[in-house]
Amino acid sequence: MRSYLIPFPSLLAGFVAVLVGYASSAAIIWQAAAAAGASPQQISGWMTALGLAMGLSTLVLTLWRKVPILTAWSTPGAALLVGGLQGATLNEAVGIFIFANALIVICGLTGWFARLMRLIPHSLAAAMLAGILLRFGLQAFATLQGQLLLCGSMLMGWLLCKALAPRYAVVAAMAVGIAVAWLKGDVVTKSLNLAFVAPQFVTPHFSLTALLSVGIPFFLVTMASQNAPGLATLQASGYRVPVSPLMVISGAFGLLLAPFGVYSVCIAAITAAICQSPDAHPDPQKRWLAAAAAGVFYLLAGIFGGSITALMAALPVAWIQMLAGLALLGTLGGSLFQALNAERERDAALVTFLVTASGITLAGIGSAFWGLVLGGVSFALLASKARA
């Protein structure tokens, strides 16, 4: 029974993962819902449904495989919906969600996405993950320029604890940051109002024009910019899991809950990396405890979904950015080592890393996908040359 008790570092990793997930994209989701004509009450219901969906799907997948599998909504997909849903009705938006999630389930059932993922070399998967995480590291240290006292104190707390008690380094950074922010008066609590807002069922309407113009691009962006990096993150962290069942289960959650505002349920990359790092647990076989903790925190966030925006506003942005950067530092270092360790694959891995880190968007698809594409082309050309 003791093995199922969640150690505090794992508990903290789960909390930070959920915190980062909401802080980085909650505002985009609100914009997407507003673009479809949702009322503030309906938007709050969307946040409730999304939190509950992420919590349930994370717990189902993690407890089933005993692997740190986190789910997330598609942030690139939400960004696409902000523009794509302009002029659409809420019923048409729900029809798009159902259509896109049905396509994801079909991808899982046919197994073609699993076959594609098996073609990705391990070094390129690690390089892509490092490219995704780089901006979090840069963003963390950039906060020193405007918030030297707050973020400098967090960094010093992290360094000192890293030398004395490494497992609690992120804990120390968080505690020091909260204390300094509170003393500075940067924590704004007057707007907090914890309340449960029930999701509302919306009858879907399927418009062929909307499905073709928004639904298909939304599906492609979700698969290329969210599911592919999420699965590659699992691979880069050393976890081998069957791809097709993950697609079927995550897509099924999105499909069933789409009428309540759950526009997507995807395999997480950035937040998952927090729970897959050595800081979450020194034993890779027990890091699933951090993901399980994240699932519980997602459920709590869902129950109080109507208060998420106010909660995010109460926390200093610099505190969140520094905490996220420090929490991901170990994973970033490990990914860079794996990406560049094999000399024959180093150039292709560097291409993958730099393209992913560049943040470019081509044809509406994010840099993680293009990093894998260009890195894969480089790998194929340079590997054939090396064999010759």
TrEMBL record:
Pfam families: BenE. GO terms for molecular function: benzoate transmembrane transporter activity. It comes from the Bacteria. Keywords: Membrane, Transmembrane, Transmembrane helix. InterPro entries: Benzoate_Transporter. NCBIfam families: benE. This is Benzoate transporter.
